[in-house]
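Researcher: I'd like a structural prediction for the single chain below. Treat it as a standalone chain; there are no partners to consider.
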Amino acid sequence: MKTLRKKLWRDIGRQKAQFAAVTLTVFLGIAMFGASYDSFQNLEASYARTATEFDFANLTVSGGGVQGFAVEAASTTGVQAVATRAVANVPFRIGGTKLLGRMVGVPATGQPSVNRLSILEGSYLTGPGTVLMEEHLAHHFEIGPGDSFEILGSQGWSTVRVAGVISSPEYIWPAASRQEIITTPDNFGVVFAAQEDVISASGLEGPNEAVVYYENGAENEALTSALSGRAIELGALEVYTRAEQPSNASLEQDVKGFEELALFFPILFLSAAAMAAYVMITRLIHAQRAQIGILLANGFTKRQVLRHYLGYGIVPGLLGSVPGAVAGVLLARVITRLYTGFISVPVTIIRFYPATLFTAIALGLLATLLAAAAPALVASRLAPAESMRGLTPPGKGRPSLAERLVPPLRKLPIRWRMTLRGIERNPRRTIYTVLGVVLSLTLVLVSWGMLDTIQFLMNRQFVDIQRQDARVFFSAPVGPAEVSAITDVEGVLEAEPLLELPIAIETGGGRYETFLVALNEDTAMRRFYTENGQLVTLPDDGVLGAVGLTDQLNLAAGDPISVTVGGGVAWSFQTTLSDLIDEPLGSMVYISRAYAEQLAGMPLPATSAMLTYTPGSVAGVVRSRLVELPEVAAFEDANAIFDTMQQFMALFYAFVGVMLAFGAAMAFALIFNTMSVNIAERSREVATLLAVGTRRRTISRLITTENLLVAVIGIPLGLAVGYLTSAAAMASFQSDMFRFQLYVRPTTFVWSGLALLVVALISQWPGLRAVNRMDIARIVKERSV
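Model: Treating it as a single chain, here is the predicted structure.
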């Protein structure tokens, strides 16, 4: 075995570039697994600790008889704490900015028993007229303890003072609702105030929300089902669990993404590493048939030969997986800190998970060991005498498939016919090269496809679907005259009324809470697209619903639905889901204003208006004019939301960018390995051509042309497999809040294919250099032996 160990290391030394490529591939795959999976575990631990430290509600109930529900829930086994509170959306005025704010009621003299707060600056409430400002809003407007701003309440604008800046488990991600998870501090913010102050400012009659915390914060499906059913019986309009809470649900989508990536990308990388190792070891054994025969003939056992060639998989597996696992663990710490710091998670947990480390090493070793197993088994079963005689190519030579299909190709110069026939002469080599191209393109397209999809969907949502430049919210419901008066403001071209009401949809398949949006039937500021891209309009006697409803309620176009409307315009009606529309964000229901008024039996007001600017207007100037109007309570800049969304996606872009760089590096390593071995195993063929007078430059051109032709054959297949794999990856992120349908720009396919050709061309350089330095006499002697 000492002799075989020497042979192992000498063979690795002779083919160090190929072994290094396999080792690099394993390293990248394992590092990605460790970084993604540990980040996933750290984030889960951080959110779990946040939930328990701050008594984050397991169940939230809005509307209906919350007081009676709270009394019943408090006496239910398994419930640790119940609190009722007043929650109201009211306008804020901070400096010269009007925005839609939210006031959440808390006890005046102490922390709430459910959904406790973390005081980051200042103190808890110090008396009437003081509030606690959520940190995202405070940091954006640079507000600290002692500063003041205005709130529009039932008695008009009043000044309140900030007692402290806080972090809340409900607003780690400041989402307004499950349908409005993307907000900006200029458009939406949250403050916590004494319960009495919230009721006074909003005009509510009392608490309108109940929050329930289970024993030790543990989830309890049976308890949730019982309490949810009772809340609905008592008239609750909205009931959601901790997992469905808008902020937490948004964050869980990210955590799910880390989990998916922790499995998806490493599987691709390790599959590529296994294939590269398999190709390399198979070709090594093919070239060493005579040596294997000599070993077996001189007393080495089949088991010794098997273990020897398994070593060619074990060595790169260990060399890649051990440092890869360590790098992944360290990288996970960096990713976790960046992520939790970026979104201001109150509690950050970073742990060392030995299971991840050892699992990563085992996965890397297993991938290359399995790749080596089949060829090593073949080597151990070779017959000594037959192996020592070498290989005699079976069958007769014949024209290539291209020549048989297109007979005029038989008249091409001999060097071109050699290239065409070389592709077919060794099917094994051609298949391995095509597989390398397919895997490489798959790795690149999955990452690039994610970037294309996100950019396309953001444009679809904020440019194609939402056509308005801005939206203003009124201090009270208004009629057509007030909406029309908005167009009198200089810089405003058009204004359309909009009524948005909370609703609950009920079908035989369940219940789902969302918003009903009433628009003019001929609206020009909102477009509706079906899944196949067809543009549709609001129906005369039905509603349009987002495709996300199909996952929640198993609905299809044409199905009847029952709708219960809240928000001060309470009524219920039966209607038809006329069509399903494809929207990247949210799962709302749209109805024409005329049909909504017909169902309600009365004219309906507008709670906001969508605006477009006259060409050449300055958005900031128009905003300043609009917010001066007394009836305008808040302003929402559509372009600012789009810009904010792009900023929020910066972390995602960075992560996918790293994946793309990893994929490109792995693609290069894979193609380099394939091309290098292609050239190395043809040394005798090349030496023979050199011996009969063929120039080295000509041979290099022939080999390059053949390899590039094989790459061209593999590119269409690789693009197809890459697209399907990307579609599967994006489908895993679907929910009622996000709908990521894969979109890949045509140019991405073109550039990916061209990039792979360039990689294939560059990766041949070391092998072609070896051709130029080839010792003809030595190779011919080895062949004669």
